[in-house]
Amino acid sequence: MLAKYILKRVAMMILTLFIVVTATFFLMQIMPGTPFHNPKLSPQQLQQLMAAYGLDKPLWEQYLIYIGHAFTGNFGTSFTYTNQPVSMMIAQRLPVSAQLGLEAMIIALVLGIPFGVLSARYRNTWVDNILSVISTFSFSIPSFVVGTLLLLAFGYTLQWLPVTGWDGFMTGTSVMPALALSLASMAQVTAFVRSEMIESLSSDYILLARAKGLSDSEVLWKHAIRNSLIPVLTLIGPMTAALLTGSVLIETIFSIPGIGQQFVNSIPSKDFPVIMGTTIIYAVMLMAMILITDIITAFVDPRVRLD
């Protein structure tokens, strides 16, 4: 059953990836201008560059060549950085983006789960109201706005933390970008855990546990929280999407050398191979995380079937 499910999902992932690659390729063609916009280039030099990168071929031929190369991990050569394979550029920067996303996810879970539990435990009280306001603001304000405010407050004004650069996972340079990136996901986790906890606390097995004479803390920790946290696993896939797409601007604001910053820098220069390669990597990572999440959820929660 598991092998059949995985094969089915992998086939769907390949089809989805094919659609993403196709859509991205033709959208790139709509962008005005050419990657080689140096005014000093003569028409002959421009023609030579177009031929060197295969841009003088018919569009359908360029598409078939790119599709064949992309599914083997060859994303071509950067137009901006001479003789730099896109796959190598992404491989150098991907660990930085992965570390930033992982740190942001840890912060979102560490803050969101307790907030959700407290909000449900003290439902319709001042505690619930304050946490609801915090969650609403965290979800409503874009991550790049939060990042800018943190940068101004703790970077420039108070000078407590470095304003740019990257020293690694869980270091001073990662605190502000990870926090800014995590707030929206934290709010999502808080709301989800609160909803699941309220449903659990009103369930029959909770009433039975109370009837047996268990204290409120025993009911909360041994029964309600345990069953409420299982559905949180289903949030990992969507959270991954939010963290991946959100990191694009965060990396630019804090000058973090990840694939998000590289993606943003490649747009004005019309570096098509970098844009497409980064888009493909984002799509693969997102689909892989959703698949892994579904499999883990099925193993943890026996009520879920892999159909």
Description:
There is one protein chain. With 307 residues, this protein is mainly α. Helix content is 73%, strand content 0%. The chain has helices at 2-30, 43-52, 59-70, 86-121, 126-140, 143-157, 172-201, 204-211, 216-229, 236-253, 259-266, 272-300. The longest helix has 36 residues, at 86-121.
Task: Give the helices and strands, then pairings.
Elements: H1 2-30, H2 43-52, H3 59-70, H4 86-121, H5 126-140, H6 143-157, H7 172-201, H8 204-211, H9 216-229, H10 236-253, H11 259-266, H12 272-300
Helix pairs in contact: 1-12, 4-5, 4-7, 4-10, 4-12, 5-7, 6-7, 6-10, 7-9, 7-10, 8-9, 10-11, 10-12, 11-12
Shape assignment: globular
Name the poorly predicted regions: none
Q: How much helix is in the residues?
A: over 70%
Helix and strand content put the structural class at: mainly alpha
Query: Count of helices?
Result: 12
Q: Tell me the Rg in angstroms.
A: 24 Å
The helix/strand series, from N terminus to C terminus, equals HHHHHHHHHHHH
Q: Compute the average pLDDT.
A: 82
- Main pleated-sheet profile: none
Overall number of strands: 0
Strand fraction: under 5%
Q: How far from one another are the termini?
A: 8 Å
Could you give a quick summary of the protein structure above?
Helices cover 73% and strands 0% of the residues.
